[in-house]
Amino acid sequence: MLPTAQPVAVPAHAAAPPPPERARSQGAARVVLVLALSALGLWILHGFLPALAWAVVLAIALWPLYARLERRFPPGRHNLLLPTLMTTAVALVFLAPLAILGVQAAREAHDVAEFVRNAEANGVPAPEFLQHLPYGAAQATAWWNDNLGHAQAGSDLLHRFENHSVVGASRNFGREVLHRIVLFGFSLVALFFLFRDWRTVTEQARVACDRLFGPRGERVARQMVASVHGTVDGLVLVGLGEGFILGVVYYFAGVPHPVLLGAFTAVAAMIPFGAAVAIAIAALLLVAAGSVKAAVVVAVAGLVVTFVADHFVRPALIGGTTKLPFLWVLLGILGGVETFGLLGLFVGPAVMAALVLLWREFTEGHDRTA
Predict the structure, then answer these.
(1) How many Cα atoms within 13 Å fall on the side-chain side of residue 163?
(2) Among positive and negative, which fits the CA dihedral 39, 41, 46, 49?
(3) Do the beta carbons of residue 68 and residue 357 sit within 8 Å?
(4) In 1, 116, 261, 325, which residue has its Cα 20 to 30 A from 313's Cα atom?
(5) Is 154 part of any domain?
């Protein structure tokens, strides 16, 4: 006969649930601890939060391409090669234009130095376009020659500029460049780990949204991700297209340094109404060189390209992806840029998309739970 199993004695303090008052106090203490640790972590990382945000934005924007490559080339055991190649490609996309700009600036340094020497020795000559002004050409030319056209005025102006502006500006510029390089490097490191562990990150984010906010949290997250995709297509890709088209216009119109100005136009076109500044600079350079007709051509071509892009292409790409009215897209972009800088180009529309989704669910009179 088999021996009868004896029941295991359970300590009374382990079996009995804690009193309600103690459970409430423990819950409150856990909430306070989580909030305090979260605040401390944000305070420690506050200088790197923009870099982390950029890494998240880049990962979301490039995730479809990365997923396609991952299906085509399955990762190995350690999953290092593909994330490294993608991160390196992103770094080259940002660093290659900067290297080209640096080479071009080095080439132009000789001309700038020659201009400074001539201005210090002979003054700053009056630009040719002053003589072609429809009104006040003689007075403007005379004022320029009296104030800037002789050697003493040019020397005083350059020395004053050097003493009061160049030194301080160069120091601030150096610090900003170093700071941006560090943040960019940190963004690349974070981007590498997001590529490598994207399945784990997305699953944890989904579980956290579901536990904190229920099904609505996941819907809001998906809407924000869709907004980032739409913003990348509507701002970045369209801006690059505008820069390329207007760069060709600059080249045939005779604008100085059309490649550099086209690149500047592409970056400026990512910000609403920013392309107008680049187009105005190109037109003014042509007017200063005496090519008024070419300046008119550049202005008209820029107006047509930006009108089509801003009123037809971008609303279709951004609003079609997120089902967000273009007015809210525009307000999100402008408010985001004012608040967060360039990062606000993506954060602003994402926040607006989430708010509009919540508003629509609230005003529809029902709360979906699936």
Answers:
(1) 6
(2) negative
(3) no
(4) 261
(5) yes
